[in-house]
Amino acid sequence: MKIAFLGPHASFTQLAATQLFPNEELMPQANILDCFNAVEKGEADKAVVPLENSIEGTVSMTLDYLYKTPSIKIEAEGVMPIAHHLMIHPENSVEDLEKIYSHPQALAQSFHFLDTQYKEITRQDFSSTAAAAKYVSENKDQKIAAVANQFAANLYGLKIVHRNIQDFEQNHTRFIVISKQQTPYHNENLEVLGEKSGMLVNLPEDHPGGLHQVLSVFAWRKMNLSKIESRTLKTGLGNYFFFINVVGKWEDVLHGNALLELQSIQAEVDFLGNYKEFLLES
Amino acid sequence: MKIAFLGPHASFTQLAATQLFPNEELMPQANILDCFNAVEKGEADKAVVPLENSIEGTVSMTLDYLYKTPSIKIEAEGVMPIAHHLMIHPENSVEDLEKIYSHPQALAQSFHFLDTQYKEITRQDFSSTAAAAKYVSENKDQKIAAVANQFAANLYGLKIVHRNIQDFEQNHTRFIVISKQQTPYHNENLEVLGEKSGMLVNLPEDHPGGLHQVLSVFAWRKMNLSKIESRTLKTGLGNYFFFINVVGKWEDVLHGNALLELQSIQAEVDFLGNYKEFLLES
């Protein structure tokens, strides 16, 4: 099987993809759109893209492309705690550091550590944490370090000098597995955190209380939402669709009736699937 | 007045900041956190940061920092249509192009144009559209182009060879002006698109229908929402806060009572302000 993912090599998304698909061929893509295109054209069977809180891409693009390509559904979700490490070339020392490279969001997420331990050291933006790690591995004559993940340290043979320098223990990145088949994803080696349904809901007219009406469908059935996000439609300002996650296992009567009730209030629903949430390592 | 903004120079956020604050001192920052820190420590009076759909940063960080720094409020919102242009060094020709540089999201947003007109040309990721434009301006011996905005073309003296190559006419980026004073922002030279209130709502317990209960407060008052987004709290999985925009002018009784009713159902509300939405040029 061919699995597209948001590259570059040693990105957090690759770290997710290798755990979700340890025995499949992984195909790095330059951006989120390319991941969707590869799946839609059949060049890849599935793709792994970030859904929430990633440092590697504007994740709103994932929601927009889910909306634009109704043939693509969700098979699984992976949740990865974010862990940033400070790493240097193995032959160098951390004492005479002059510059620290990383993606600007990774530098921001490690702000407290860098500001107390390396306050005077210049920080330099890179297009990705992996690219920063690669650059450090290729320039041992420079007194530089990278903020990147464990996978990048292994891949580029760097020495980790400070572990877990991120400001919050509980910062997570969410990834989804997308495909056209929507075959049930299963992996015995990963811990299952829960189960949920994903859907895109579009209200035909923007009127006060419209979203409230949609949420009533779930509320009186005691279906709990774990995520809701409004996105502007590309047709202009003031038109929206919503990405909604409903917690729990799929129940034919409960979920089926909820979808029917949504249609009865003229809401357009693209049901993205009922899928499991897996814990990934970082 | 000192205005911090999400840099680098010639970024879309700078384009927004120069229109919102044409006569003030602009201070570029490496990331969104630095913008918030500059305002909180008083190093800057205000800051301009992306709120939605930016290609320059994971905008969920803006919501997270609004939540983490309750002293910071919103004074204004700017809406900018996204316009990407293909630009080259003025002494070069577009005929023998070998590489096109830009931010990966800008390349994705111009996918249709690039894929039909420049299908065979290699696309190369850069950390920002502005950095790509700068690189093109400094390397006239190379047969390269950048996808960037008008401002970058002007700043780095590049020649635009194709205008408006983005896939959607109606793609917008939203920016907010943040400060600790919350002085009413006004600018006679910008068109006002509307008025809205922003707030962060935190539910003490995650229970089915909790969000529905919050939205009831707005629905029965016929207050229309233009944006809603859930964000995971840093305290662990499964705890959320919501960013909500309510359309319209502030009305003491209506809004005041809505906030009181939210408190009566144990929702914690951080009211971010009632502010105008301005149309920006790109």
UniProtKB/TrEMBL annotation, chains A, B:
<comment type="function">
    <text>Catalyzes the Claisen rearrangement of chorismate to prephenate and the decarboxylation/dehydration of prephenate to phenylpyruvate.</text>
</comment>
<keyword id="KW-0028">Amino-acid biosynthesis</keyword>
<protein>
    <recommendedName>
        <fullName>Bifunctional chorismate mutase/prephenate dehydratase</fullName>
        <ecNumber>4.2.1.51</ecNumber>
        <ecNumber>5.4.99.5</ecNumber>
    </recommendedName>
</protein>
<keyword id="KW-0057">Aromatic amino acid biosynthesis</keyword>
<dbReference type="GO" id="GO:0004664">
    <property type="term" value="F:prephenate dehydratase activity"/>
</dbReference>
<feature type="domain" description="ACT">
    <location>
        <begin position="199"/>
        <end position="276"/>
    </location>
</feature>
<dbReference type="GO" id="GO:0004106">
    <property type="term" value="F:chorismate mutase activity"/>
</dbReference>
<comment type="pathway">
    <text>Amino-acid biosynthesis; L-phenylalanine biosynthesis; phenylpyruvate from prephenate: step 1/1.</text>
</comment>
<dbReference type="Pfam" id="PF00800">
    <property type="entry name" value="PDT"/>
</dbReference>
<dbReference type="InterPro" id="IPR002912">
    <property type="entry name" value="ACT_dom"/>
</dbReference>
<keyword id="KW-0584">Phenylalanine biosynthesis</keyword>
<dbReference type="InterPro" id="IPR008242">
    <property type="entry name" value="Chor_mutase/pphenate_deHydtase"/>
</dbReference>
<feature type="site" description="Essential for prephenate dehydratase activity">
    <location>
        <position position="173"/>
    </location>
</feature>
<keyword id="KW-0456">Lyase</keyword>
<comment type="pathway">
    <text>Metabolic intermediate biosynthesis; prephenate biosynthesis; prephenate from chorismate: step 1/1.</text>
</comment>
<dbReference type="InterPro" id="IPR045865">
    <property type="entry name" value="ACT-like_dom_sf"/>
</dbReference>
<dbReference type="GO" id="GO:0005737">
    <property type="term" value="C:cytoplasm"/>
</dbReference>
<feature type="domain" description="Prephenate dehydratase">
    <location>
        <begin position="2"/>
        <end position="180"/>
    </location>
</feature>
<dbReference type="InterPro" id="IPR001086">
    <property type="entry name" value="Preph_deHydtase"/>
</dbReference>
<dbReference type="InterPro" id="IPR018528">
    <property type="entry name" value="Preph_deHydtase_CS"/>
</dbReference>
<dbReference type="GO" id="GO:0009094">
    <property type="term" value="P:L-phenylalanine biosynthetic process"/>
</dbReference>
